[in-house]
Write a structure and sequence with these properties.
about 475 residues; alpha+beta; 6-stranded mixed β-sheet; 23 strands; about 30% helix
C-alpha cells in the first residue's frame, strides 16, 4: 500500500514525494528545485538564495488579514546513510504503524516538516495568518543554511520550528555551539622499530547534546589517557591516532599506533601498560560502557615515518588535557546540562594531528570561555586553531504567547489521550537547533519547536509513527487557527 493511503493524506502524500528525491546534506539541489517548482505551480511568492534555501509565502486566509505573520521552519536535508538511490531516493514503506525505509535512513528528520509546510501552503480550508515557510539547507552538517539566510526577508515575529522528534514535548530553548579545530603540526622522523597498535571499541556513544549527561566514556579520551600513561612510563613515538566520526557524536571507537624501543622488555611493558590502563578505565565506566573492548597487537621491526618526539609529547599532553563531558549543570532547571564539551574527532594527516571539539552552552559567555580555553591550551602546545559553525543558543523566553497557545491547544486536543500524552512537556534542550540562529537574527522572535514521534534518527532503523503525524498535524492547525 502506498504511503499516501494513510492519514493525514495531505501531509503523507508530500512526505512520500520527498522520500523519492535524494536530499542528503550537500546534495539538496533537487529538493530545493522541487520546492521552487511547487511554489510556481501554486502561484505563491518565493525566494531561493545562493545557498539553495527556499522561502515560500502565502497570504492570510479570510478574517486573519490583520494577524501577525507566522514563520514555519524546517530543514530540507537529511542524514543520508545506507542504500539511497540517486534516481529514486529512499525506499519508504509502512510497518506496524510506522513509516521506515529499506536499508537506509528515512529522512523524517526533517522531511516531515517539509511535508507539513507544503500541505499548509496547498490547503484552501485551513484558517491561518500569513505564512512564511522557511526551508533551510545543510542543517545536519552545521546549520549552514540557517546561518547564511538573509532573515530580513521575513516579516514574522512568531516562529514554529518542526524539527523535534518527541511528541508531547514543546521545546522552548536550546544550547548554542561552536566547533574548534586544533591542528598540531609535526615533523616526521624515520625509525626502524617495533610497532604497538591498539584499538578501543564498543563504547556506547550517543548524541553529544542529548546524551552527554549520561557521562559515558569517549573513545578519544580513553585513547588519550592510555597514550599519556605510556608516555609517562617509556619512550614512544606516535605513528598514528584516529578516532570518532563526527564532532557532535560521542566517539565510540579510537585507534593508535606507536613505535617503541627495540628491547624485548619494552614489548611486554607496553602491552601491560595498555591492558592495565584500559582495565582501570573500563572499571570506572562499568555502568555506562560495560561492553567497552580493547584490541592490541605487536608488530616486529619496521621502517616507518613517525611523529617527532617533541610533537608526540605536545600532542598527547594536549589531548589528555582538553575538557570532555558535562562542564556545568543548569542550576535553575532540574537535570539540565548548561555547558558541555565533546572531543569528537582525532585524525592523523600527512603533517599534522587534528582534533575537533564541539562546545555547547545555553549561556553564550560560558561557551565563549570554553572556546578561549581550548584555543589557549592548543596554542601553548604549538597548535593552530580555527573556530567553525559558531551559532548562538536560544534563550528561554519568560513570556511567550506562542507557548501559551500551544499548551492550551495541546490540552484540548489530547484530553482523551493516554496519561503519558495528556500534559505537554515544556523544556529546553542541550542540543543545538536552528531556532537559536533565527532568534539571533530576528529581535523579539517568539519560538516553539514541535514534532511527531520518531525513533532512531540518523540510523538505518529510523522510523516515524503515523498516528503521531496525524495528531501533530491537528495540533499545528489548531495553533494556527488560534493565532488570530
Amino acid at each position: 500500500m502506498e504511503l499516501s493511503n494513510y492519514k493525514p493524506k495531505e501531509v503523507i502524500k508530500y512526505f512520500e514525494e520527498i522520500c523519492k528525491i535524494p536530499h542528503g546534506s550537500k546534495n539538496v539541489e533537487k529538493i530545493s528545485q522541487y520546492l521552487v517548482d511547487f511554489a510556481k505551480d501554486k502561484g505563491l511568492s518565493y525566494i531561493q538564495d545562493d545557498d539553495l534555501n527556499v522561502v515560500i509565502k502565502k497570504p492570510a486566509t479570510k478574517g486573519y488579514e490583520s494577524a501577525e505573520p507566522v514563520i514555519l521552519q524546517g530543514h530540507m536535508d537529511m542524514v543520508a546513510i545506507g542504500d539511497i538511490s540517486e534516481e529514486t531516493g529512499v525506499d519508504a514503506y509502512v510497518e506496524d504503524g510506522f513509516i521506515t525505509a529499506k536499508n537506509s535512513t528515512l529522512g523524517a528528520d526533517d522531511g516531515i516538516a517539509v511535508a507539513y509546510m507544503l500541505a499548509l501552503l496547498e490547503a484552501d480550508d485551513i484558517p491561518h495568518p500569513a505564512l512564511e515557510c522557511v526551508f533551510t539547507t545543510d542543517e545536519e552538517i552545521g546549520m549552514l543554511g540557517a546561518i547564511s539566510l538573509d532573515a530580513s526577508i521575513l516579516e514574522g515575529k512568531t516562529m514554529i520550528n518542526v524539527d523535534s522528534e518527541q511528541e508531547g514535548v514543546l521545546t522552548v530553548g536550546c544550547a548554542g555551539g561552536a566547533t574548534i579545530k586544533c591542528s598540531f603540526p609535526f615533523r616526521q622522523e624515520t625509525f626502524t622499530a617495533p610497532i604497538v597498535e591498539f584499538k578501543i571499541s564498543n563504547i556506547t556513544g550517543g548524541h553529544s547534546g542529548g546524551e552527554i549527561h549520561k557521562q559515558g566514556a569517549n573513545a578519544n579520551v580513553v585513547m588519550g589517557r592510555i597514550l599519556l600513561t605510556l608516555l609517562q612510563n617509556m619512550e614512544i613515538r606516535i605513528l598514528s591516532i584516529n578516532g570518532g566520526d563526527k564532532d557532535n557524536a560521542i566517539a565510540t571507537f579510537a585507534e593508535a599506533a606507536v613505535v617503541i624501543s627495540q628491547e624485548e622488555e619494552a614489548k611486554t611493558k607496553a602491552l601491560e601498560i595498555i591492558e592495565n590502563t584500559f582495565n582501570e578505565i573500563k572499571d570506572e565506566y562499568s555502568f555506562t560502557d560495560p561492553n567497552m573492548k580493547l584490541e592490541k597487537n605487536y608488530l616486529d621491526m619496521s621502517l616507518v615515518n613517525v611523529v617527532s618526539g617533541a610533537a608526540t609529547l605536545t600532542t598527547i599532553v594536549a589531548l589528555s588535557q582538553f575538557d570532555n563531558g558535562v562542564i556545568k549543570m543548569e542550576p535553575s532547571m532540574k537535570d539540565m546540562v548548561r555547558t558541555s564539551q565533546n572531543l569528537g574527532i582525532v585524525r592523523t594527516l600527512d603533517n599534522s594531528i587534528d582534533i575537533e571539539i564541539l562546545v555547547r552552552s545555553s549561556v553564550e559567555s560560558e561557551k565563549n570561555y570554553q572556546v578561549e580555553k581550548i584555543k589557549a591550551l592548543a596554542e601553548i602546545f604549538g597548535g593552530v586553531v580555527t573556530v567553525e559553525n559558531d551559532y548562538p543558543g536560544w534563550k528561554y523566553k519568560e513570556e511567550s504567547r506562542l507557548r501559551e497557545v500551544f499548551v492550551d491547544c495541546y490540552k484540548e486536543l489530547y484530553k482523551d489521550a493516554d496519561d503519558s500524552l495528556k500534559e505537554p512537556v515544556v523544556e529546553t534542550v542541550h542540543a543545538g537547533l536552528e531556532c537559536g540562529i533565527f532568534t539571533g537574527k530576528i529581535e523579539g522572535l517568539d519560538v516553539v519547536s514541535i514534532g511527531p514521534q520518531m525513533y532512531d534518527i540518523h540510523t538505518v532503523d529510523e522510523r516515524i509513527e503515523i498516528a503521531s503525524i496525524e495528531r501533530t498535524w491537528e495540533l499545528l492547525k489548531a495553533v494556527l487557527k488560534k493565532l488570530k
